[in-house]
């Protein structure tokens, strides 16, 4: 960016500010539900390990309601396809709303939002830290991806990117009010959490070649993925499987892994993370349709290697 990134410049961008508010809602409700899930609050989709919780549905509904209210001309596409819900209809919604910026449409283009309320639902249900909220924004007229934001409350980390302005990591949502809307966790974030760290992929000289991936739920897809794994590992020294596509993409953007690939992701899975990786300088292949590969890598050669083998 031409000027240093600050909380003020972040919040002055209407699309980033709207993504930030959506994440504020999601983080607060994930914190609320984290210790309240029981068997009655968890159901399955098409596979016993493809879980859906009341938290997924509520977060998506609230984020959709927020975006409809503040950006009525935009389109919102969520993983769960639930109806919008206003914060006014949520017990404690007024307290949660106190932490919102409430940005208007400003001068920004008409946006198509892709929302994953909880990426890594199995991890969330089982108390594992690798779960997050993910939101990506695309210009409806041009198809250009404009903004991506991923917020992982259990990791106390936020990643975000603005097209042409780089990818960044911070420890708290910009403009966060200590304690506002944080559910049961009212402790203020440490001062360093408001620092912005620019991401640039794998640091020069880092040893080892580590790849991240995920596995599908259907036996047929998993068979394809497992058959390809020995071929993939010919080019890598180790493998990581965290259970959240968005967090794996952010790990690549940070240089924690050299590459990430996965087949048959939904747009909501990669909408934010792919832009974050791209703005961090990685080479990105977005899928053209169902069953296709999503790949990010720190070099073009590594991406081509994965394209040929995965």
How would you write the strand order of the largest sheet? 3-4-5-6-7-8-9
Principal-axes shape call: globular
Low-confidence stretches: 178-189
> How would you state the average pLDDT, rounded?
90
| CA radius of gyration | 19 Å
Query: What is the helix tally?
Result: 9
Main beta sheet strand tally, sense and closure: 7 strands, mixed
Span between termini: 35 Å
Number of domains: 2
CATH topology of the largest domain: Fructose-1,6-Bisphosphatase, Chain A, domain 1
Report the count of strand segments: 14
User: What is the chain-wise order of helices and strands?
Assistant: HHEEHEHEHEEEEEEHEHEHEEH
GO molecular function, one term: metal ion binding
Binding site for Mg(2+): 79, 116, 118-119, 269
Cofactor: Mg(2+)
Protein name: Inositol-phosphate phosphatase
Question: Can you offer a commentary on this structure?
Answer:
- The protein has 310 residues and is of the alpha+beta class.
- The protein is built from nine helices and 14 strands.
- It has helices spanning 7-12, 14-33, 54-70, 93-97, 121-126, 219-232, 245-254, 267-279, 300-309; strands at 42-44, 51-53, 75-78, 111-119, 132-139, 145-152, 157-162, 167-170, 197-198, 210-213, 238-240, 259-263, 283-285, 293-297.
- A seven-stranded mixed beta sheet has the order 3-4-5-6-7-8-9, sandwiched between helices. A five-stranded mixed beta sheet has the order 11-10-12-14-13, sandwiched between helices.
- Helix 2 packs antiparallel against helix 3 (54-70) and helix 7 (245-254) packs parallel to helix 8.
- The longest helix has 20 residues, at 14-33.
- It is globular and about 55 Å long.
- Mean pLDDT is 90; it is low at 178-189.
């Amino acid at each position: 960016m031409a000027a240093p990134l600050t909380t003020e410049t972040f919040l002055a961008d209407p699309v980033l500010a709207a993504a930030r508010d959506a994440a504020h809602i999601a983080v607060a409700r994930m914190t609320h539900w984290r210790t309240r899930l029981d068997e009655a609050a968890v159901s399955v989709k098409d596979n016993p390990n493809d879980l859906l919780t009341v938290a997924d549905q509520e977060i998506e509904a609230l984020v959709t309601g927020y975006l409809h209210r503040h950006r009525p001309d935009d389109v919102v596409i969520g993983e769960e396809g639930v109806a919008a819900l206003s914060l006014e209809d949520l017990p404690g919604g007024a307290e949660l709303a106190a932490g919102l910026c409430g940005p208007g449409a400003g001068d920004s283009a008409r946006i198509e939002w892709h929302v994953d309320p909880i990426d890594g639902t199995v991890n969330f249900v089982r108390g594992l830290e690798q779960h997050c909220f993910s939101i990506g924004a695309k210009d409806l007229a041009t198809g250009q991806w404009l903004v991506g934001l991923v917020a992982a409350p259990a990791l106390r980390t936020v990643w975000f990117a603005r097209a042409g302005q780089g990818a960044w990591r911070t420890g708290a949502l910009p403009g966060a009010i200590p304690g506002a809307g944080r559910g049961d966790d009212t402790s203020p974030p440490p001062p360093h959490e408001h620092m912005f760290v620019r991401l640039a992929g794998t640091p020069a000289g880092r040893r080892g070649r580590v790849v991240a991936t995920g596995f599908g739920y259907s036996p047929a897809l998993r068979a394809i993925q497992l058959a390809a794994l020995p071929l993939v590992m010919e080019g890598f020294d180790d493998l990581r499987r965290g259970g959240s596509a968005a967090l794996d993409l952010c790990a690549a953007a940070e240089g924690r892994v050299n590459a990430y690939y996965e087949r048959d992701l939904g747009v909501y899975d990669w909408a934010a993370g792919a832009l974050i990786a791209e703005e961090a300088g990685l080479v990105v292949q977005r899928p053209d349709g169902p069953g296709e590969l999503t790949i990010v890598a720190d070099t073009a050669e590594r991406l081509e290697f994965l394209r040929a083998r995965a």
